UniProtKB/TrEMBL annotation, chain A:
Alphabetized PROSITE patterns for the sequence: ABC_TRANSPORTER_1, ABC_TRANSPORTER_2
Organism in which the protein naturally occurs: Pedococcus cremeus
Listed EC numbers: 7.6.2.11
GO terms for MF: ABC-type polyamine transporter activity; ATP binding; ATP hydrolysis activity
Gene3D superfamilies the UniProt entry points to: 2.40.50.100, Nucleic acid-binding proteins, P-loop containing nucleotide triphosphate hydrolases
Similarity section: Belongs to the ABC transporter superfamily. Spermidine/putrescine importer (TC 3.A.1.11.1) family.
Protein name: Spermidine/putrescine import ATP-binding protein PotA
Physiological role: Part of the ABC transporter complex PotABCD involved in spermidine/putrescine import. Responsible for energy coupling to the transport system.
A Pfam family per the record: ABC_tran
Lineage: Bacteria, Bacillati, Actinomycetota, Actinomycetes, Micrococcales
Superkingdom of origin organism: Bacteria
UniProtKB/TrEMBL annotation, chain B:
CDD domains linked to this entry: TM_PBP2
Transmembrane segments: 70-90, 102-128, 134-155, 176-199, 232-255
InterPro entries: Bact_Polyamine_Transport, MetI-like, MetI-like_sf
Family that this chain belongs to: Belongs to the binding-protein-dependent transport system permease family. CysTW subfamily.
Domain ABC transmembrane type-1 residues, every copy: 64-252
Lineage: Bacteria, Bacillati, Actinomycetota, Actinomycetes, Micrococcales
GO cellular component, one term: plasma membrane
Protein name: Spermidine/putrescine transport system permease protein
GO biological process: transmembrane transport
Length: 370, 263
């Protein structure tokens, strides 16, 4: 992917307030040209409003939108070289599929509109349906027509507003791969809005997790997942076990710090511990925990309270002496399985934990996904 | 017995259709009559005389021409104005919107006798002479309401995202209106225009209040004639009007179902 500063999309202090509330807090964001960027968050977090401001369909209350060095904040939607794939597709019902795709080109007086539209339909593998009306197509096909209609204009930025939301799971998986393929083929900057964390992680190079009108954390999918910086991100992206703990020791020579939780000393990597805080939530992803003592130096004893077999893995709920249940996911790799009521030891390595400031809601972001 | 039960709905539908169409059929049959007296109420013998000379009765084609002129002008003006009003009411929130809605509805709810007489009072007070201009103004006024209602229903069902999509794809406000909004609202506008024309063409009461001796519309002519005798030409013109309406409606249906099916 070419690193050209000239086509980066930049939001500078961009904000949007309605009468009663602020939908988007002042936001600074740079999305590099040619990248696949996801705005991820629960409904009402301001991600769609941000997208609509970039498209020019919503006027910002403040701040700037720039593509390269060009300030497009005050331009109208039809003047921007930005196209949108709408959640409802918004295909023109009175036009054929081909006329839909050619619409943008014709507005610019492109002499070659028909041929280019046909090519775009080929790109989304719908070359044969050009003369049909949108209502005659299935949801998945309409989705691809909407994509072709936007891509054919070669926009600087392509905006996707929950484009896969109306598709069933299987089709959604297919389209995720398809979208990714098309994006790398055409090399246009994609900004994808979604509430589906799995979708965002599958497709995007960079994810901005939004909550309450502001960006909670920005990073590549692996970093966000392994080192969340807030309980919201920890809970919204996948599942997390959070233990309240106090930092008791100083960093050791092996790069770990000792924290105390429920009268047990546990270790966490120094690199995963934010500076200057004593009260923390120690977080562990369920699949990083092991039943037995083989997982690492951190060990907790408990009783299995629930076992659910999911095929590739088994999910256990293990009740701690102080009443809280931890979730453990074990690969079904042939090792012995525990049963309900069994006393087990949970273990994990220091580098598999992450620490969060305890001055926040431990349940933020829980159950906000579908 | 079971056969009758199973087809009961079809029988009922046919009976209703028969009931609704029988007056038109009678009018058409009697257009081929050659009455002995001045009244065309009893079948005597078959003749195509009236069809060969549809204007054979003095004044009838003049009144038809006036009705067509008023009908076309009134429905055109009412459609243009009504479409604009419908978009304003359907798309924008403004002060007095509820009041406007009520005012638009009023002419449909007001008895025609009341409207006709009060319009006459108004025209007399303002010094507007009775005649075809006064009739035209009156017709535009009451047709407007029907156009607004027809178009507003269509506008309400339009997805505003489609206009956003058009803007997003580079269409300015005028292009968006002409290429997306107007074509999508067209069925509502066409329905409103047809309704307006038939209402205007058909109107007797309001027209009669505001007419002058030189502005006899077709319904007035028919009514006036019926007191002295009914020329067969009335049936001929009535039949032609019915056939034109039939062709327009059936043609419109066929066209829209073909567009739906077109692959």
């Amino acid at each position: 992917m070419a690193e050209q500063l000239s086509g980066d999309l930049r939001l500078v202090g961009l904000t949007k307030s309605f009468e009663q509330f602020t939908a988007v807090q002042p936001t600074d964001l740079t999305i590099s040209q040619g990248s696949f960027f996801a705005l991820l968050g629960p409904s009402g977090c301001g991600k769609t409003t941000t997208l609509r401001m970039i498209a020019g369909l919503e006027d910002p209350s403040g701040g700037q939108i720039l593509i390269g060095d060009k300030d497009i904040t005050s331009t109208k939607a039809y003047q921007r070289n930005v196209n949108t794939v709408f959640q409802s597709y918004a295909l023109f019902p009175h036009m054929t599929v081909l006329d839909n795709v050619a619409f943008g080109l014709k507005r610019r007086g492109d002499k070659d509109a028909k041929r280019k539209a046909e090519e775009a339909l080929e790109l989304v593998q719908l070359a044969e349906v050009g003369r049909k009306k949108p209502v005659q197509l299935s949801g998945g096909m309409q989705q691809r027509v909407a994509l072709a209609r936007a891509i054919v204009n070669r926009p600087d930025v392509l905006l996707l507003d929950e484009p896969l939301g109306a598709l069933d799971l299987k089709l959604r998986r297919q389209m995720q791969i398809e979208l990714k393929r098309i994006q790398s083929e055409v090399g246009i900057t994609f900004v994808h809005v979604t509430h589906d964390q799995e979708e965002a992680m599958t497709m995007a190079d960079t994810i901005a997790v939004m909550n309450g009108g502001r960006i909670e954390q920005l990073g590549d999918p692996a970093t966000l997942y392994e080192s969340p910086r807030s309980t919201f991100v920890a809970n919204f992206l996948g599942q997390s076990n959070l233990l309240r703990a106090t930092v008791t020791g100083e960093p050791g020579s092996d790069g770990t710090v000792v924290v105390r939780s429920h009268d047990t000393d546990l270790e966490v990597s120094r690199a995963h511990l934010p500076d200057g805080i004593r009260e923390i939530f120690l977080g562990m992803r369920p699949e990083k925990l092991r039943l037995g003592t083989g997982g690492g130096p951190n060990q907790l004893k408990g009783t299995v309270s629930d076992v659910s077999f999911t095929g590739v893995a088994t999910q256990y709920l293990v009740r701690m002496p102080w009443g809280r249940e931890l979730t453990v996911v074990q690969q079904n790799d042939g090792s012995a399985r525990a049963v309900v009521g069994e006393n087990v030891t949970i273990s994990w390595a220091a580098e598999h934990g992450f620490a969060l400031d305890a001055h926040q809601d431990a349940d933020a972001g829980v159950d906000t996904e579908d | 017995m079971r056969w009758v039960k199973r087809h009961l709905l079809a029988f009922a539908a046919l009976a209703v259709l028969f009931y609704m169409l029988i007056p038109n059929v009678v009018v058409a049959i009697f257009s081929f009559n050659k009455p002995r007296g001045r009244y065309n109420y009893q079948w005597t013998e078959f003749s195509t005389e009236a069809w060969q000379h549809p204007c054979g009765t003095p004044g009838i084609c003049e009144s038809l021409g006036l009705s067509l002129r008023i009908g076309i002008t009134a429905s055109f003006v009412a459609t243009v104005l009504g479409t604009m009003v419908a978009f304003a009411l359907g798309r924008h929130r403004f002060r007095g919107r509820a009041g406007t809605n009520l005012l638009v509805f009023m002419p449909m709810a007001t008895p025609e006798v009341v409207m006709g007489s009060s319009l006459l009072t108004l025209f007399v007070m303002m010094g507007v002479p009775s005649g075809s201009e006064a009739i035209l103004i009156a017709h535009i006024m009451f047709c407007l309401s029907f156009v607004v209602v027809a178009v507003k229903a269509r506008v309400a069902s339009l997805d505003p995202r489609l206009e956003e999509a058009a803007a997003d794809l580079g269409a300015n406000a005028v292009q968006t209106f002409l290429r997306v909004t107007l074509p999508l609202a067209a069925p509502g506008i066409a329905a409103g225009a047809l309704l307006a024309f038939s209402l205007s063409f058909d109107d007797y009461i309001i027209t009669n209040f505001n007419a002058s001796p030189s502005s006899i519309t077709f319904p007035m002519y028919v009514w006036g004639a019926s007191t002295r005798g009914t020329p067969v030409q009335i049936n001929v013109i009535g039949t032609i009007m019915f056939l034109i309406a039939l062709v327009v409606v059936v043609g419109g249906q066929a066209y829209s179902s073909r567009r739906q099916k077109a692959a």
